[in-house]
Write a structure and sequence with these properties.
Layout (H helix, E strand, L loop, with lengths): L1 H11 L2 E4 L5 E3 L2 E3 L1 H8 L10 E4 L2 H12 L8
Parallel strand pairs: 1-4
Antiparallel strand pairs: 1-2, 2-3
Length: 76
């Protein structure tokens, strides 16, 4: 159905993905990428889905805690 494909393309244009854990932001929630890929069926699109990088709250907090700790090697 062409209208469904067009609808999915519009919805998929510019997914926001956590650069650390790779979860996808949808509304106010961070969802596992596999769930989003299956639901939106991005594997059926002719065009590549654009991804915008971000940090989810959990990864942002963890990175801040790591940076404050002087005893651990800094990974990020």
């Amino acid at each position: 159905m062409p209208s469904d494909r067009l609808h999915n393309r519009i919805r998929v244009d510019g997914l926001v993905v956590c650069s650390v854990c790779l979860r996808v932001r949808e509304g106010g929630a961070w969802i596992e990428a596999g769930h989003v890929i299956r639901r939106l069926r991005t594997y059926e699109h002719e065009d590549v889905v654009r991804l915008d990088g971000a940090l989810c709250q959990g990864c942002r907090t963890e990175l801040r805690l790591r940076r404050r700790s002087g005893s651990e090697a800094r990974a990020a």
